[in-house]
């Protein structure tokens, strides 16, 4: 009986201690893996971003950051894949404070983080489409490496293509574009067949092919001459491109792909 009492005396506190350790581990599943980076880096959010207490969309939201919010990343963990195959979650709180994370697909590294800002480079994670309005050119990046580029045509004066950070949220192939402007408007166009369309902004802003144009690139977003179809203007706000370019982009870019439209 004395042996049993002594066994209980020692095992009881040990079991309680193990239970406490286990409970703490379960409540902090990423604590052990939150290794500090060689050096924290500065970036900016590319869209509206939820700040969460864990590395999944079930974790509590403590704040919502607007596009372009500057953040410091102290560690990067693997967590839930939300879109585009990206499993990274960036810890934006110091390692000796309560953990706060933003999904890695929504944070882009600044070119020169040491001086408090800088322009944003294509994300080193996942797929990114960059459109330059000044050059009338599109670039496709994957994990920071350029894979594809093409001349494009963007919005004409009065219907400029909006700048900013967006994400592909719909893909249509084929589809028919219907003019939102009434017949008689200078902007009206007849129902138009489209082979490949990727919508990046609500209201009908697409990356798409345009069989009625044969000229793309610098100067095509305003009044210009097409050797096949005569005098033409830029698009109605979309990013138009040759059929082969649109087909490549459609097959390469999944829902969620970041689209950066730059001046």
The CATH level-2 architecture of the largest domain is identified as Beta Barrel
Q: Classify the beta-strand content into a percent band.
A: 35-45%
Distance between the termini: 84 Å
Question: What is the CATH domain class of the largest domain?
Answer: Mainly Beta
Helix percent band:
10-25%
Low-pLDDT windows of residues? 1-10, 19-32, 112-120
- Helical region count? 2
Describe, in plain words, how this protein is organized in 3D:
With 263 residues, the protein is mainly beta. It folds into two domains: 41-118, SH3 type barrels; 127-262, L,D-transpeptidase catalytic domain-like (Beta Barrel). It contains two helices and 22 strands. The strands form seven sheets. The chain has a five-stranded mixed beta sheet with strand order 12-11-10-22-13, with no helix packed on it. The chain has a four-stranded antiparallel beta sheet with strand order 4-1-8-9, with no helix packed on it. The longest helix has 26 residues, at 2-27. It starts with a helix and ends with a strand. Mean pLDDT is 84; it is low at 1-10, 19-32 and 112-120.
How do the helices and strands line up, and which of them pair or pack?
Blueprint: H1 2-27, E1 41-45, E2 49-52, E3 61-65, E4 70-73, E5 75-78, E6 88-91, E7 101-103, E8 107-112, E9 117-120, E10 127-132, E11 137-142, E12 145-151, E13 164-167, E14 170-172, E15 175-177, E16 192-194, E17 197-201, E18 205-209, E19 224-226, E20 230-232, E21 239-241, H2 243-252, E22 258-262
Parallel strand pairs: 10-22, 18-21
Antiparallel strand pairs: 1-4, 1-8, 2-3, 5-6, 6-7, 8-9, 10-11, 11-12, 13-22, 14-17, 15-16, 17-18, 19-20
